[in-house]
Amino acid sequence: MNDTVKPKYGEYDPFYEKYVSYSHGKDIIGLIYAQIDELEDILANKSDDWFLIPYQEGKWTPKELIGHVIDTERIFAFRCLSLARGERGTIPGFDENDYVKMAHFNDIPVKELMEDFRVSRLSLRSMIRHFSERDFMRQGTVNGNVMSSRACLAIIIGHFNHHMDVIKERY
């Protein structure tokens, strides 16, 4: 099944290459679960204050970054489902900064953010478990660009990896 979910160049906007490249040669399905534990490990033993301090003026706090990851995964899960089901309309883009501003992530307890992440990942796995190869390959238009259902999965995995690298290196 993992070969089925690996997108090829041209199945997504080149903007997403940095995220898709994180998933090359990896067990995408296994990472849906493994990244839950990874996030828990990264956040373990952090002080409450740590979650509210951006690494630089104008950047997100760790809570906002985690919330952004959750929002983005929900949006890409919707895109994945829509494309797998043959959506013919254009799926819109979104402004990540506006979403973070409107979400009030700094007011949400870390435990609840982790629960949201876990539930989102379990829901994603449940959603795709019965997708056929054809479902994963289906393409449509997202934010004016071609995208396949399987590219959405690779982007979810790579986007998470990108932001965990940011947490490890900058916070």
UniProtKB/TrEMBL annotation:
<protein>
    <recommendedName>
        <fullName>DinB-like domain-containing protein</fullName>
    </recommendedName>
</protein>
<feature type="domain" description="DinB-like">
    <location>
        <begin position="34"/>
        <end position="166"/>
    </location>
</feature>
<dbReference type="Pfam" id="PF12867">
    <property type="entry name" value="DinB_2"/>
</dbReference>
<dbReference type="InterPro" id="IPR034660">
    <property type="entry name" value="DinB/YfiT-like"/>
</dbReference>
<dbReference type="InterPro" id="IPR024775">
    <property type="entry name" value="DinB-like"/>
</dbReference>
